[in-house]
Every structure is written in structure tokens, then in C-alpha cells.
């Protein structure tokens, strides 16, 4: 029997372009007492992810969900779907208790925020990262931007096709779509990856407070306990490496072109983002976030 919605605070949906730090942020938020995080991404069609119950085959932009899709998402966002569990989850055993707040991480939700919120009541958190940093991470993984899939959804192909222009078009389309979705909803939170890293635990605690979470016990924030350093996620890098290490792996021309092509979307994101404390500006600045 489904638990009444009134017994829970709204679930949190952490989303963003893949390789923007959504896993790290969701796991960090799930360090708050009274939360639980299933590990899988509900709308991700790749590998062993859920693909919205097998109903999607790639990037999709859903204006509404059919009954099966809505039922699957409600179960996941209530912590009632065993197929959503994975090694990246946090306190998954507690998800069924009515006082536990569920945190879901799903980059593929970017394009369908109004439909997902209508079905689940989730509170969206959009995390964005510099497009050049995302490109470097894609290269490390051997990935390429899914430009053809989003072109089928209406995105414009770049005038010249290469890794840089494809990433610029992909990053801009995904973040613009997410911002449009948040505007339609009249809510949600936009967070800069750089602001979080610069601000360290102080910024993370401020974000948690903004979202109605307890950020006072950040000593329990997730580490790389079950994650290999060279695997999909590496939570052990220093803040300096996270913030600027990618610059050494791209040419000045590549960075300049990425910034020029994504500038309109970057401006919208920066204007909409939540302002967080900057620990790097303090005399005794220190950061443990990586």
C-alpha cells in the first residue's frame, strides 16, 4: 500500500548535464539525517539503468507521462522501487519509512522537469558545471555528446561538427531546456558546481538549509568508500583539481570557443543560481569538497 504523500517532505531531484557532479551532489545531500537515496537514474536508458521502465531508448523530452511511466516514477520517488537500488545509493533501507525524504539523481530528467514534478511532487535541483570541464570529463570516459539524439528533439546542429561544437550545442540545449522547465514550474533551485566547490562545507550547508535539510553534520558526507579512483566517479580529487584541473587538458582556443558558444545559456544560469558562501574568500579558507 502506497504511503500517503502528506507523510513526507517533497522528494528532491538532482539533475544536470552528465559529468556535472550530480552523483557527488546527490550523495552529499543524502548525508543529511532523515534522507535516503536510491542509486539508479530512473530515466537513463544506458547500460543497466532503468530507462523509465523500458519506455525510453535515449534522450526524451516528455510533456506528460503515460500511466505506466507515472506509476514507475512515483514508486521510485517514494523509495518503493527495488529496481532503483544500486551501490551508489545512501541509506536505501530507510526509504520506506514515512519520515524519510527521498533524493533522486537523474541527469536524463533535464528535459522533462514539469512532467516529472507533476507526477512525483519532486523539488528539482539543477546543477551546472563549466562546459569545458564537462567536455574533459566526457573525453576521460571515452564519451561523445549525444548531439544527434537531441537534434531529433529539436536542437539545432552546430555549423561545424567536432567535439567542441557538439558539446557546446548539447550543453546549451540541455541547460536551456531545464531552465525553461523551471520557469514553467515557477520554482526549483539552480546551483553552480564551481560555487559549491569554492564554498566547501559552508556552501554545501547553506544549500542544504535552503532545501530544508540538516547540514550541521557534514562529517558524514560520502567518500569514495565503494568507488574506484579510475571508475565512473572519483570523489577524492582536491578542490583545486576539480575547479581548474581541466584547463590544462584543453587548448585556449577550445575553451574560448566553448565559452563563446554557450555564453547566452551561461548567463541565464548565473543569473538564476542560488548565491552560496565563498569559503575561498575567507582568511582561514579550507575545503573538503572534491
Low-confidence stretches: 1-6, 222-230, 284-290
The CATH superfamily appears as P-loop containing nucleotide triphosphate hydrolases
Within the CATH hierarchy, at the fold level, what is the topology?
Rossmann fold
Largest sheet, spatial ordering of strands = 2-3-1-4-5
What Rg do the Cα atoms give? Answer: 18 Å
Secondary-structure element series: EHEHHEHEHHHEHHH
CATH class: Alpha Beta
- What fraction strand? 5-15%
Oligomer: single chain
Can you summarize this structure?
This protein has 290 residues and is of the alpha/beta class. Helices cover 40% and strands 7% of the residues.
Mind explaining what this structure looks like?
The structure is a single chain. By secondary structure, the protein is α/β, with parallel strands linked by helices. The chain has a single domain, classed as P-loop containing nucleotide triphosphate hydrolases (Rossmann fold), CATH 3.40.50.300. The chain has helices at residues 22-29, 51-54, 67-77, 113-120, 131-141, 147-151, 163-185, 193-210, 239-244, 252-272, and strands spanning 12-15, 35-36, 101-105, 123-128, 189-192. A five-stranded parallel sheet has the order 2-3-1-4-5, with helices on both faces. Helix 5 (131-141) crosses helix 7 (163-185) and helix 7 (163-185) packs parallel to helix 10 (252-272). The longest helix has 23 residues, at 163-185.
Amino acid at each position: 500500500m502506497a504511503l500517503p504523500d502528506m507523510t513526507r517532505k517533497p522528494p528532491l531531484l538532482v539533475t544536470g548535464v552528465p559529468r556535472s557532479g550530480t552523483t557527488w551532489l546527490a550523495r552529499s545531500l543524502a548525508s543529511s539525517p532523515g534522507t535516503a537515496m536510491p542509486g539508479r537514474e530512473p530515466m537513463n536508458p544506458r547500460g543497466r539503468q532503468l530507462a523509465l521502465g523500458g519506455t525510453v531508448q535515449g534522450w526524451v523530452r516528455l510533456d506528460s507521462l503515460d500511466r505506466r511511466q507515472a506509476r514507475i516514477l512515483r514508486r521510485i520517488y517514494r523509495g518503493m522501487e527495488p529496481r532503483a537500488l544500486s551501490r551508489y545509493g545512501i541509506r536505501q533501507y530507510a526509504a520506506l519509512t514515512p519520515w524519510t525524504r527521498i533524493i533522486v539523481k537523474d541527469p536524463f530528467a533535464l528535459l522533462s522537469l514539469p512532467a516529472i514534478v507533476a507526477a512525483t511532487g519532486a523539488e528539482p535541483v539543477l546543477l551546472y558545471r563549466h562546459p569545458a570541464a564537462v567536455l574533459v570529463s566526457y573525453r576521460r570516459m571515452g564519451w561523445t555528446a549525444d548531439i544527434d539524439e537531441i537534434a531529433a528533439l529539436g536542437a539545432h546542429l552546430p555549423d561545424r561538427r567536432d567535439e567542441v561544437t557538439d558539446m557546446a550545442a548539447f550543453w546549451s540545449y540541455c541547460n536551456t531546456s531545464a531552465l525553461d522547465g523551471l520557469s514553467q514550474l515557477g520554482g526549483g533551485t539552480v546551483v553552480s558546481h564551481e560555487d559549491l566547490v569554492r564554498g566547501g562545507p559552508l556552501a554545501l550547508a547553506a544549500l542544504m538549509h535552503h532545501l530544508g535539510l540538516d547540514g550541521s553534520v557534514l562529517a558524514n558526507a560520502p567518500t569514495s568508500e565503494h568507488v574506484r579512483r579510475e571508475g565512473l566517479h572519483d570523489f577524492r580529487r582536491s578542490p583545486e583539481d576539480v575547479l581548474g584541473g581541466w584547463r590544462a587538458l584543453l587548448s585556449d582556443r577550445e575553451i574560448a570557443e566553448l565559452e563563446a558558444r554557450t555564453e547566452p545559456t551561461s548567463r541565464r544560469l548565473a543569473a538564476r543560481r542560488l548565491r552560496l558562501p565563498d569559503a575561498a574568500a575567507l582568511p582561514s579558507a579550507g575545503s573538503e569538497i572534491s
